[in-house]
Amino acid sequence: MNNKTITIVAIVSIFAMSCISSEDPNKRTKQGAAVGAAAGAVLGTIVGHQNDEKGEGAVIGAAAGAGVGALIGRRMDRQQQELEKLEGVEVTRTADDQIDIAINNEILFDVDSAQLRPRARTTLEEIAGVFREYPDTNLRVEGHADSTGSDAHNQRLSDRRAESVSNYLELKGVSSARVDAIGFGEGEPRASNSTEEGRQLNRRVEIRIKAQG
Predict the structure, then answer these.
(1) Which of 39, 58, 81 is the last residue of a domain?
(2) What per-residue confidence (pLDDT) applies to 50?
(3) How many domains in the chain?
C-alpha cells in the first residue's frame, strides 16, 4: 500500500461529501460517513501495510470507517434535535461531531454572581437529561463575564460560573470524567459592553459537545 492509494481514497471520500445536497435532511450523517471512510482508509493502510500489497486494508478500513462515521453522525443528529426542544437554549451544529449550546444569559446569573438562579437549575436539569442519554460525548463548559470590574476579577468570575454549571450537571448524573470547565473572563464578548443589554449577553455559559473517538 502506498501514499497514492491513500490519496485516492481520501479524494473519493471528499468528493462524496461535496455531492451531498445542502437540502438533504441526512446531510450530517452522510458527511460523517464520508469522513469516516477517509479516516478508515488511512487506518486500514497503516494496519495492513506489512501484509497487504493490493489495498484490501484500505478498502476494509474505509468501509468500517464509513459505518462508524455514519453512526456518530446519527447520534449527534438525535442529540441536536433533543437539545433544540429545550427552552432557553441556543443550539449550533459547528461540525459533524460537535454541537455548541449557549444558555440564555438572563436565565443563569445575576450581575457579578456565579450562583445559579432557580430557573437556571431547571434548564440545566433538562440539559443534563439529554447528556445522560448520549454518554459517548465529552463536554467543555465555558464561562464568560462582561467587562465590569478588573480583568483578574472577571477571570475568576468566569471560572466560577463554568464550575457552577459543570458541578450542577455532575450533580444531575453527568459523569465528571466527561466534563471540563474553563473560564474566558471578558475576553470573548458576544456584544458590546457599552450597554446593559450587551453586558447581559456577555454574562453567559456555553457548552461544547464533542463526540468521543
Answers:
(1) 81
(2) 53
(3) 2
- The answer to whether residues 163 and 195 belong to one domain is yes
- Do 53 and 96 fall within a single domain? no
Low pLDDT (below 50) residues in the chain: 8-9, 12, 15-16, 63-64
- At 12 the pLDDT is 47
In which domain, by residue range, is 100 found? 88-211
**Within this chain, do residues 119 and 50 fall inside the same structural domain, yes or no?**
no
DSSP the chain: --HHHHHHHHHHHHHHHHTS-TT-TTHHHHHHHHHHHHHHHHHHHHHHTTT-SSSHHHHHHHHHHHHHHHHHHHHHHHHHHHHHTSTTEEEEEEETTEEEEEE-HHHH--TT--SPPHHHHHHHHHHHHHHHH--SEEEEEEEE--SSS-HHHHHHHHHHHHHHHHHHHHHTT--GGGEEEEE-TTSS-SS-TTSHHHHHHHSEEEEEEEE--
Q: Which of 32, 59, 81 is the last residue of a domain?
A: 81
Q: What is the pTM of this model?
A: 0.70
